[in-house]
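Journal club prep — side note

Before the paper discussion, L.F. wants everyone to see what a predicted structure for a comparable chain looks like in C-alpha cell form. Sequence:
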Amino acid sequence: MRNYLKTWINDVVKTYNFDGIRIDTIPEVSKDFWSEYTASSGVFQMGECFNGDVTFVAGYQGPVSALFNYPMYFKINDVWIYDHSMFEIRTLYADEDNHFSNVDILGSFMDNHDNARFLSKSGNWAAFKSAITFAMTARGIPFFYYGDE
C-alpha cells in the first residue's frame, strides 16, 4: 500500500503539474510514511495536524514541508472569542520558536471547514475583523477557507 500511494502521488503531481499538496489528518499515519510520501511527491506539502500542543505539532515539520498552525488557531480563539490576554500570543510565538525548524512556513488561519466558524462561536463582528486581520498579517502563510474544500 505504501508503494502504491507513493507511486500514485508522484503520478498525480506529474500529470496535473501541481506545485503543492495539502495533506489531511497527518497524525493518523506514521511519520516515516509521510517522509517517503512527500519525497515521492516532489512538491511543497501543507499538512494538517489538528492539535494545539506545539511540541506535538512541531514533530511533523520535517516529514512534511509545512503545517497548518493549529496551536495559533486555538490561541486566536482564546484571545478574540474567550477574552484571554494577547500576551499569550507572545508566549506561543516563543514556544513555537523553540520547537519548529521554520515558523515562517506555518499556515496561519482563524477559521476553517473542520471547526465551528468563528462567528458561530462569538457573533462578535469586531472581534472577527480583528482576528482575521491578525491571521492575515501574522508570521507564516495566511490560509483562508470559504465553504467546503
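L.F.'s comment for the group: Residues 2-16 form the longest helix (15 residues). Keep this in mind when we get to the figures.
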